[in-house]
Amino acid sequence: MRDFDVAVVGGGPAGLMATLEIVSNARSNLRVIIFDKGKKVSERKCPLAIKTSNGNSTTSNSKVECLNCKVCNVIYGIGGAGALSSGTLNLRPDIGGDLDKLVNDWDYAEELVSYVDRVFVSFGVPEDTLHVPDKEKITLLERLAAKAGAKYIPTPQRIVGTEIMIKVIDNLSSYLERKGVRILTETSVADIVRSDGVFKLSTTQGEFTARRILLAPGRGGITWFQKILKNLNIEYEPGPLDVGVRVEVPSYVTEDVTTINPDPKIVLYTKFYDDRVRTFCTNPRGFVVQERYEDGTIGVNGVSYRNLKSRNTNFALLVTLKLTDPYSDATELGKSIARIATRVGVGKPIIQRLGDLEKGRRSTWERIERSIVTPTLKNVTPGDIGVVLPYRVVINLLEAIKRLNILYPGLYSPQTILYAPEIKYYSLKVKTDKNLQTSVEGIFVAGDGAGLSRGLNIAAATGVIAGRAILQTF
Fold first, then answer.
1. pLDDT surpassing 50 at residue 446
2. Dist. CA 145–CA 413, nearest whole Å
3. pLDDT tens-digit profile of 376-415?
């Protein structure tokens, strides 16, 4: 059978949650298929190869290497990037996206976030993963942030861990298959056309038809997504680009803050350019990993585990760039930065000490080995980040690191390690109605790729909205 009621393109949190809403309804007997160009979550290799001299599990002294040098499983596959990231669920509607603005109702947005949390717990997220910052300690962090000219956003979180989130996604996808959902992995959708009241999908597994479409490709499919939107004449508007570096320091530099809030959200505006800079995806005692995109460009990300620990903490430091007419294609700007970085890094991310960046010189392995920080990502090229990132971005990053030293004493050190590039590809926003239906009737969107979210929790919530809306159309 190749005729379906609903086709979901993208098996990340948005696509999975939408599908769950459709098939869990007692009155629903809709035929649903999910396409994903990556593998099943159980087949996606953990991004870290764990090696010890005695064969036991990894300790802080063990050698940890990135496995995704040739085929990146961090971005693509069932569960999306969130499954092989730290698995952190931020339990605020305005963290990981602007859900409150999307639905124009804070209470409803909070209800959606709580619902998503309950669903993840029902599929295996441990109850003891919940972290709620203490009110008195929140005040302390707010004061420190204010001294830095920044804003700390207290956020209840579930710190799940990559190895646990993989099992949760496996439980969820297995449940969907038992409910009759067909999941086609390692399957790319080349084109979608509308014909005789249905949509025809051309895939690497042949032709399929569907009465409704949900496009939820995630950040990894942004180039494909733009092409499909143009082919279908779906309206969208350009959005901002987040570009920066991943910072790595000894865990003791950040632990006074991360013990209060494991993934602290800190936002500041730079003095000269007045640009927004934020911390993102903090991984206490975590690891830096490589991302590799379908066009051959590379990037970096961070992961953390419930049981596997390093001696370092890493976090993304991102500058938000807003483009205006006549050039507003932020996605292409991001890709051009990634192409330059990939070429300069000879197919690998660039690593540099903060002190070398300030002095305008490239790092070498000899200089990096003198650092007090032992990098957790080895498959990198020592170089000069100032060569690949725009001048404006570099100046913003240096100012932000210096100011954040108030919260993280020791962060503004010549020894601090930086990796580049870290780019978040959600730099377009599809125009939709309140049900996330596009300008083409029957096509809905959800998740990061559609510009509706910036993280696991809100991506999942947009999937819930779209899934409920799709169900209502039948």
1. yes
2. 19
3. 999 999 999 999 999 999 999 999 999 999 999 999 999 9
Q: Which residues pair with 202 in a beta bridge?
A: 191, 207
Q: How far apart are CA 222 and CA 97, in angstroms?
A: 17
The Cα 231–Cα 339 span in angstroms is 25
> Which of 373, 340, 341, 333 has its CA nearest to residue 356?
373
| CA-angle at 102, arms to 96 and 105, nearest 5° | 105
Residue 432's contacts (CB-CB under 8 Å, 6 or more residues apart) are 438, 444, 445, 450, 452
Q: How far is CA 288 from CA 43, 201, 309, in A?
A: 21, 37, 12
Contact between residue 90 and residue 457 where contact means Cβ atoms under 8 Å apart:
yes
Q: In this structure, what DSSP letter does residue 197 have? A: T
CATH number of 3-125+160-237+429-473: 3.50.50.60
Residue 228 DSSP one-character state: H
pTM: 0.89
In the chain, the amino acid numbered 328 is S
DSSP state of 55: S
Tokens linked to 364: 């070498």
- Kindly provide the residue ranges of all beta strands, DSSP E only, lying in 165-233, ordered along the sequence: 182-184, 189-195, 198-203, 206-215
